[in-house]
Design goal:
The complex is a heterotrimer.
Chain A: H1 2-9, H2 18-50, H3 53-60, H4 64-96, H5 101-113, H6 116-126, H7 129-132, H8 136-160, H9 163-172, H10 177-188, H11 190-206, H12 209-213, H13 219-226, H14 231-266, H15 268-278
Chain B: H1 2-5, H2 25-41, H3 44-65, H4 76-81, H5 84-116, H6 123-136, H7 140-151, H8 156-164, H9 177-200, H10 205-213, H11 218-247, H12 250-256, H13 263-271, H14 280-312
Chain C: H1 2-10, H2 15-38, H3 56-67, E1 69-73, H4 82-93, E2 96-100, H5 106-115, E3 125-129, H6 130-138, E4 142-143, E5 165-176, E6 200-202, H7 210-222, H8 231-242, E7 246-250, H9 253-257, E8 263-267, H10 268-275, E9 283-285, E10 293-301, H11 307-317, H12 320-328, E11 332-333, H13 336-342, H14 347-352, H15 365-378
Parallel strand pairs in C: 1-2, 6-7, 6-8
Antiparallel strand pairs in C: 3-10, 4-10, 5-8, 5-9, 5-10, 5-11
Helix pairs in contact in C: 3-11, 7-8
Classes of the chains: A mainly alpha, B mainly alpha, C alpha/beta.
Chain lengths: 279, 313, 383
C-alpha cells in the first residue's frame, strides 16, 4: 500500500509546474551558497594558516585515543539519558498535562543562561566523593546542559505531529503506552531525535569548561594540553576537533537513518503515519 | 540514573480513566488528589533530575548572591551587580542578544526550509544536519580566531574586500558589537537550523498544494497556514537563541578583551579570573541577573505568542 | 644584576600582606602540628614543615617515590619552561606527574583544592598569583613548608610561616615581529605612533587576565600614574584605541604569527617562551618608560594527595636545578640573586634576559586590589 500512495502525497519537486519550482530551486541554492561561503571561508583562512604539518604533530601526541574514547563514551551516555528522560516527559506533558508546557519550556531554558562554571562548581560542591571520582559525573551534568536543545527539538517535532490522533489510533488498536511510544511516536520523531542527538553529541565532544574544572582529560581538554606547542598546532587543533566531531556525527546520522528505514518497513501503522507527515 | 528508566510506566492508568459519577464529596476530593498525583507522576523523573542537576546549583547561585565573603547575609553583591558598568553590561548584553537571536533565527529558518524542501534522506540534508551540529557547538577562542584571521585587520577576506572596495572594511569593525553579532551567527544559525527543522515537518506539502489549488498566493499561504503552524515553534527557538547568546562568553572575550561591557564576560572575571580574588559572589549576583533577564524574555514570549495566535486566526 | 633590581624592589612591599597572611596562617599551623603529633610515626609527610622535619632528603625522596605520583594543576608546557621542568623531575625521581586543567586560572586552582579534598586526584601543589595565594591562605588551604633554601627567598616575597612563597616572575615587555614592524617600539608611549595602526594587542581582558592587568599597570607608570594610580593606564589604552592602534583581541603566539597583532604587550618570559619559537626574529624589549614586575607564588595544599611528593617538588623547584630551568624559560627565579652570588647561575640563560634599565617596584596587595577595582569599573570605557 505504501509504495502506491507515496508518489501522490510526496511529489517529486519540479514535476508539475516548472516556473514556480524553478524559482524555489533558485532561492534554495542562493541561500545555501551564501551560507556555505559564510561558514567555509573563515574555516579556509584557519586551515591555510595551520598548514599540513601541524596535524601530524597533533595526532602524534600521546593520549589522543583514550581522551577521544572517554568523550565518545560520555557522549553516548549523555545522549541516552537525555533522550530517555526528555522524550517520555515531553510526550507525556503534550498529551496529559498541556498546562505544564510553559513551565517545562521555562525550566529547560535555564541551563543555557547559567554559566557552566557555576553549574560545575555547584555540582562539585554537593556531589559525593565516590561520584566525583568517576568521569561519568560529567555525563550527569551534560544531561542538564543538553536539556535546552533536547526539549526544544522534541517539542518542535511533537507540535508538528497530530499527536493526539496518532496515540488514540494506536491505543484503539490495542497498543499500550510503551508500544505507542516506541513504535508509533518515536518513528514519527526521527528528525527531532536526530537533531537532539546531533546537538547533544556535538556539545559533549566540545565541552571544555566543566571537564577541565572537574579535572578529567576529555578530548577538548587533551586538545588544549597538546595543541599549545606552537601557534599553527593550536589552530590545527581546533580544525581537527571540528573534523572529529563531524565524523562522529556523520556515523551517527547514517546509522540512525538506516535504522529508521528498517523499522519503517516493519511497522505498518508507523509507515502510514509517517507518510502522512512527510507529505 | 534509575529514575529515567521508570518514566513511561505511570502513564498507562492515569488521566483518562473515568471517575465513577456516584461518588460522594470527600471521597471524590481524595480521588481528585490521587488522580492529580497520578497525572503528575509522569513528570516526576524529569523533575527529580532537574532538581538535582540544576536546582542545587541555582540555589547555590541565589545564596551566594546574598552572601558576603565571611558568610554573612549582604546586599552589597546585588548592589554592585546592578550599578555602574555592570548595569551597563546588562543593556549591552540584551541588545547584543536581540540582534544575535533575531538575525540567526531568520537565516536559520531559511536554511532549514531550503533543506526541508530538498529530498528527505538526501546527502545534502544529512550533510547540513551534521555540519550544523558541529558548528552549533563551536565557539570560544578557536571561533574568534577564525574570524580574526579572515575578517580582522590584515585578514584573508579583509584583503579581498579592500581590493574591491577600498576604505570600506579594514578589520577594526570586527571588534564592535555588530562584529560580535556577525561572529555569533556562526553558531547561532546552525543551532536554529537544528531546532526549527523538526517543527517544519508540521508543514505538510498537501496543505500547500491544497492552498495552491484553491488559488492562494504564497503570501496568503504563509499568512493563514504556514505562519500559524510554525510561529509558536519559531518563537520558542528565538528564545533559545536569545539565551544562548546572552550567556556566550569566550568568543566575545577573545575578540574584545572586555572593551565592550557584556554581563557574561563580567561574570567570568569574578568567577574564574586571575585578577579579582575573593569576589566570586558578585559573579553569582550577576548570574542571577541573567536568569531574571531570561525570565522577563520568557514573559514577553508568552504574551507575544498569545497576541500572535489571536492575530493569525 | 637585573634580578637585584626586582628583589631590591621587593623590599618595598608593605607589611600588610605579611600581616594578613600571618594572622590567617596561625590557625592552620596549629591544626597542622596537632595532626602531626597524633600521627602514628614520628614523621608525618602531610604536616612536616621543613626538609629536616620530613626526615632529610633521603627520607623525603623515599616517601615521595612510595607515593609515586605528583598532582599539579594549570601548568602549560610552554609556560616558564614547565614542560622541561616536569619532565626532568619525573626523570630524576621516577615520579609521574599529572597536570590537570593546563589552561586554568588561579581561581580554578583554589576551586579545585576545595572540590577534591580527600581524593587521590587532589592537587598537591599550586602556582598562583599573590592575591590568590593570600586568599587561599585565609581559607586555610595551604600546608606550611619551608624549603632548604628558604633564607634565599627575600623576606617580603614569602609568608613568614611558610604558607606560600614567590617562585618566578618577570617584567611587562613589548614583543614585536620585525618583519611587520619596521620601526622598533622602545616605550609604551611610542606605541601611540600612527605607524602602528591596527598592530598593538595585550594578552586578554585586564579585568580577568593578570598579564593584561599588568600591562595596564605598566601603561599607568609610563603615563604619569603610579602603583597607587592606575587610571592613566586606562586612559592610555583608550587613546591607543582612538588612534586605531589597539587591536582588542586576546593577543597570543597565534595572532602574532598570523599577522593580526604584530606588537604584543605581555610578560617578557611568556613572550619568550610562547611567541619567539613561532615567529622568527621576534624581539622583546622592556619599555624604557615603564618597569612593572610581578611574581607568582608556590604553595603546598593542605589536602595534598601526595604530600611527600609535593614537598619534594618544592625542594626541586628551589634547588639550583629548578631555579635555573625557570631561568632558561626566561623567567626570573626568586633566588636568582643567590644563584649569581654562589656562581651556580646558568650564565647564558641569565645573559639572555631582556635588559632592564629602570628599577621596578612591586605593588602591594592593597595597591593591587585598589587598582583592580578601578580597572574592573573603567576598562570597558576603552572600547
Amino acid at each position: 500500500m505504501a509504495p502506491v500512495t507515496r508518489p501522490v502525497i510526496n511529489p517529486v519537486p519540479g514535476a508539475r509546474r516548472s516556473f514556480p519550482l524553478f524559482k524555489a530551486g533558485l532561492w534554495r541554492w542562493v541561500i545555501l551558497i551564501v551560507a556555505g561561503m559564510y561558514f567555509l571561508l573563515p574555516l579556509y583562512a584557519a586551515i591555510r594558516f595551520a598548514g599540513i604539518k601541524a596535524y601530524g604533530d597533533l595526532i602524534g601526541a600521546s593520549g589522543f585515543t583514550s581522551a577521544l574514547w572517554l568523550s565518545v563514551r560520555l557522549a553516548i551516555i549523555t545522549t541516552l539519558i537525555t533522550l530517555a528522560l526528555m522524550l517520555p516527559t515531553t510526550v507525556y506533558v503534550h498529551l496529559k498535562l498541556p498546562g505544564l508546557r510553559r513551565l517545562l519550556e521555562s525550566l529547560t531554558i535555564l541551563p543555557i543562561v547559567i554559566p557552566p562554571v557555576v553549574l560545575a562548581t555547584g555540582l562539585l560542591q554537593v556531589a559525593p566523593a565516590s561520584l566525583k571520582n568517576t568521569p561519568y559525573i560529567l555525563a550527569l551534568e551534560y544531561v542538564v546542559l543538553a536539556m535546552p536543545f533536547a526539549y526544544r527539538t522534541i517539542d518542535a517535532g511533537l507540535r508538528a505531529l497530530d499527536l493526539k490522533t496518532i496515540t488514540e489510533a494506536s491505543s484503539s488498536l490495542g497498543a499500550g503506552w510503551t508500544r505507542t511510544l516506541t513504535q508509533v511516536v518515536l518513528p514519527n520523531l526521527t528528525t527531532a531525535l536526530l537533531a537532539a542527538t546531533v546537538l547533544t553529541v556535538a556539545m559533549v565532544l566540545g565541552e571544555y569548561t566543566i571537564s577541565s574544572l572537574a579535572l578529567y582529560t576529555t578530548f577538548p581538554v587533551w586538545l588544549v594540553t597538546n595543541d599549545q606547542s606552537s601557534a599553527t598546532v593550536t589552530v590545527a587543533g581546533s580544525v581537527f576537533a571540528l573534523f572529529i566531531t563531524w565524523l562522529v556525527l556523520l556515523i551517527i546520522t547514517v546509522a540512525g537513518t538506516r535504522r529508521g528505514r528498517r523499522t519503517g518497513r516493519q511497522v505498518s501503522l508507523f509507515t502510514v503515519a509517517r507518510q502522512d507527515n512527510r507529505g | 540514573m534509575d529514575q529515567t528508566a521508570t518514566a513511561p510506566e505511570p502513564v498507562t492508568g492515569s488521566g483518562a480513566g473515568p471517575v465513577p459519577a456516584d461518588q460522594a464529596g470527600t471521597a471524590s476530593t481524595v480521588t481528585e488528589v490521587v488522580r492529580w498525583l497520578r497525572r503528575v507522576a509522569g513528570v516526576v523523573p524529569f523533575a527529580a533530575y532537574l532538581a538535582l542537576g540544576m536546582l542545587i546549583p541555582m540555589i547555590a547561585v541565589i545564596i551566594g548572591a546574598f552572601r558576603a565573603d565571611n558568610g554573612s547575609f549582604t546586599l552589597s553583591n546585588v548592589k554592585m551587580a546592578t550599578h555602574g558598568v555592570y548595569l551597563h553590561g546588562y543593556w549591552e548584553s540584551i541588545s547584543l542578544s536581540i540582534w544575535a537571536s533575531v538575525l540567526p533565527a531568520i537565516f536559520g529558518l531559511l536554511i532549514a526550509y531550503a533543506i526541508f524542501t530538498a529530498k528527505r534522506g538526501s546527502v545534502l540534508r544529512q550533510l547540513v544536519i551534521t555540519t550544523s551540529g558541529v558548528f552549533a557547538n563551536f565557539g570560544g577562542v578557536p571561533l574568534a580566531f577564525l574570524f580574526i584571521a579572515s575578517l580582522g585587520s590584515g585578514g584573508l577576506l579583509t584583503g579581498w574586500i579592500q581590493d574591491i572596495f577600498p576604505h570600506s572594511w579594514d578589520g577594526s569593525q570586527l571588534y564592535t558589537l555588530s562584529g560580535i553579532v556577525l561572529v555569533y551567527m556562526y553558531f547561532q544559525v546552525p543551532l536554529m537550523v537544528l531546532v526549527i527543522l523538526p517543527g517544519l515537518e508540521g508543514l505538510r506539502t498537501s496543505w500547500r498544494e491544497a492552498a495552491e489549488n484553491l488559488g492562494a498566493t504564497s503570501l496568503q499561504y504563509w499568512r493563514h497556514v504556514g505562519g500559524p503552524v510554525l510561529l509558536p515553534t519559531f518563537m520558542g527557538c528565538l528564545l533559545l537563541l536569545f539565551g544562548s547568546s546572552l550567556s556566550a562568553y569566550a568568543t566575545a572575550e577573545a575578540m574584545t578583551s572586555g572593551t565592550i561591557a557584556l554581563t557574561s564576560i563580567q561574570i567570568g572575571t569574578f568567577i574564574n579570573g586571575n585578577v579579582l580574588a575573593g569576589e566570586v559572589n558578585v559573579g553569582k549576583a550577576l548570574s542571577l541577573g541573567l536568569v531574571l533577564i531570561i525570565a522577563v524574555a520568557m514573559a514577553f514570549y508568552v504574551i507575544l505568542q498569545r497576541r500572535a495566535s489571536r492575530w493569525l486566526r | 644584576m637585573r634580578a637585584r633590581h626586582v628583589i631590591a624592589a621587593g623590599a618595598a612591599v608593605t607589611a600588610s600582606v605579611l600581616m594578613t597572611a600571618a594572622c590567617a596562617s596561625s590557625s592552620s599551623s596549629t591544626a597542622a602540628s596537632s595532626a602531626g603529633t597524633s600521627g602514628s610515626s614520628s614523621i608525618n609527610d602531610a604536616t612536616c614543615a621543613s626538609l629536616s622535619a620530613c626526615g632529610g632528603m633521603n627520607a623525603l625522596v623515599a616517601a615521595a617515590k612510595k607515593e609515586g605520583h605528583l598532582n599539579v594543576i594549570t601548568l602549560p608546557d610552554n609556560w616558564a619552561n614547565y614542560g622541561t621542568i616536569m619532565k626532568d623531575f619525573t626523570a630524576k625521581y621516577g615520579i609521574a606527574i599529572n597536570d590537570e586543567n593546563p589552561d586554568g586560572s588561579s581561581q580554578d586552582e583554589l576551586n579545585a583544592i576545595a572540590q577534591t579534598k580527600g581524593q587521590s586526584r587532589a592537587p598537591d601543589v599550586v602556582d598562583v598569583g599573590t592575591a590568590f595565594a593570600v586568599k587561599g591562605d585565609q581559607s586555610g588551604d595551604w600546608a606550611p613548608y619551608k624549603v632548604a633554601t628558604w633564607a634565599n627567598i627575600p623576606a617580603d616575597a614569602k609568608d613568614t610561616n611558610g604558607d606560600w612563597y614567590a617562585d618566578y616572575g618577570g617584567y611587562i615587555a613589548i614583543g614585536y615581529n620585525p618583519a611587520k614592524v619596521k620601526v622598533a617600539p622602545t616605550s609604551l608611549k611610542s606605541l601611540l605612533n600612527p605607524m602602528y595602526k591596527n598592530q598593538v594587542a595585550i594578552n586578554g581582558n585586564p579585568t580577568e587576565a593578570s598579564a593584561a592587568f599588568s600591562a595596564v599597570y605598566a601603561a599607568a607608570l609610563a603615563n604619569g600614574g603610579s602603583l597607587s594610580n592606575i587610571a592613566p593606564g586606562i586612559s592610555f589604552f583608550k587613546q591607543l584605541h582612538q588612534v586605531g592602534n589597539f587591536v582588542p583581541v586576546t593577543g597570543s603566539a597565534t595572532t602574532v604569527q598570523s599577522g593580526q597583532t604584530p606588537i604584543l604587550v605581555w610578560w617578557d618570559y611568556l613572550l619568550a617562551s610562547e611567541v619567539t619559537p613561532d615567529v622568527p626574529g621576534f624581539k622583546i624589549v622592556i619599555p624604557s618608560d615603564a618597569s612593572y614586575a610581578a611574581y607568582y607564588d608556590q604553595a603546598v595544599s593542605k589536602y595534598a594527595a601526595n604530600p611527600a611528593a609535593a614537598r619534594l617538588w618544592e625542594e626541586y623547584l628551589y634547588s639550583s636545578t629548578g631555579q635555573n630551568l625557570w631561568l632558561e624559560g626566561e623567567a626570573r627565579p626568586i633566588e636568582l640573586q643567590s644563584l649569581i652570588s654562589a656562581g651556580t647561575v646558568n650564565q647564558a640563560a641569565n645573559a639572555a634576559l631582556p635588559p632592564v634599565t629602570n628599577q621596578a617596584t612591586l605593588a602591594t596587595t592593597a595597591q593591587q586590589s585598589a587598582a583592580e577595582a578601578i580597572v574592573a569599573q573603567q576598562w570597558s570605557s576603552v572600547g
